[in-house]
Specification:
Largest sheet: none
Radius of gyration: 12 Å
Number of strands: 0
Helix content: over 70%
Oligomer: single chain
Distance between the termini: 28 Å
Shape: elongated
Low-confidence stretches: none
Length: 44
């Protein structure tokens, strides 16, 4: 949930109303946004 809060500036109260699949979807969006802006880390 911290990924979502950090990217979208949402409070805990905002996220408590969401069910787990919705939170998972928003987390994927947050990670995708972060990777587009900052570039995905490359291993190796």
């Amino acid at each position: 949930m911290t990924d979502i809060a950090a990217i979208f500036h949402w409070s805990l109260a905002d996220m408590e109303a969401m069910d787990l699949p919705e939170l998972a979807d928003w987390r994927e969006r947050a990670v995708a946004w972060h990777n587009r802006v900052h570039g995905a880390k490359k291993s190796g």
